Amino acid sequence: MKEVVIITDPSKVRVLSDDTRFKILQLLRERPMSVNELSGAIGKDRSTIYRHIKTLEAAGLVEELESVGGERIYARTARMFLIKVGPDESIERFRRAYIHVEAEKLVRILEKSGYTVEDRAAMIRLAEEVLDFIELSSQPILKRISEAEVELTEIELFHLLNMLVFLQSCNLCEKSRLAKKLLHFE
């Protein structure tokens, strides 16, 4: 299994945009699983899960690891998938929904860490704007890395993302000041 795969092919992002396939990939991040296990965890019948597994496999996102007692065991092809593609209406809807979910998660993390968020909705919107700006600004660099087929470890990706944020930091000064106003450490 690779550590990180950067996805730049819109057809692969469309594969990921299905809720069931996304859930399958989330579960497979925990450990390899059979169709039976995935079916039980997601609450859908085996044939539906199998069809989604085959779609993920055709896109190169999952692979069959082994067969145990007649059950095929599937795993992700990478620990982390980073999605970076150009404009496409269906992909843009998925990307925006994903950014919103991640922005909400970030605000929850801050709250659990002892920060008081004065205006939760404003903080979520701000986080969405920042994530969106950094993601869109980073796409040309990430596309080049993907095209060069550079393999990244999770820690290298973390450092790369930090560097990409740093490169955009001057453009985000006003948003940083606003975030500091919305957050108070208890």
Overview of the molecule:
The strands form three sheets. Strands 2-4-3 form a three-stranded antiparallel β-sheet. The protein has a two-stranded parallel sheet with strand order 1-5. It has a two-stranded antiparallel sheet with strand order 6-7. The longest helix is centred in the C-terminal third of the chain and has 28 residues, at 120-147. It has 186 residues and is of the alpha+beta class. It is built from eight helices and seven strands; from the N terminus they run βααβααβββαβαααβ. Helix 6 (120-147) packs antiparallel against helix 8 (173-182). It is globular. The chain has helices at residues 10-16, 19-30, 35-42, 46-58, 89-112, 120-147, 154-168, 173-182; strands spanning 2-7, 33-34, 62-68, 71-76, 78-83, 115-117, 183-185.
Offer a concise description of the structure.
The chain has 186 residues and is of the alpha+beta class.
Q: What is the strand and helix layout of this fold?
A:
Layout: E1 2-7, H1 10-16, H2 19-30, E2 33-34, H3 35-42, H4 46-58, E3 62-68, E4 71-76, E5 78-83, H5 89-112, E6 115-117, H6 120-147, H7 154-168, H8 173-182, E7 183-185
Parallel strand pairs: 1-5
Antiparallel strand pairs: 2-4, 3-4, 6-7
Helix pairs in contact: 3-4, 5-6, 6-8
Distance between the termini: 42 Å
**Low-pLDDT ranges:** none
Strand-pairing-aware structural class: alpha+beta
Cα-atom Rg, whole angstroms? 19 Å
Approximate helicity band = 55-70%
Number of strands: 7
Biggest sheet descriptor: 3 strands, antiparallel
Mean pLDDT: 87
Taken from the alpha-carbon principal axes, the silhouette is globular
- Side by side, the strands of the main sheet go 2-4-3
Alpha plus pi helix count = 8
Give the helices and strands as they follow along the chain. EHHEHHEEEHEHHHE
Strand content: 15-25%
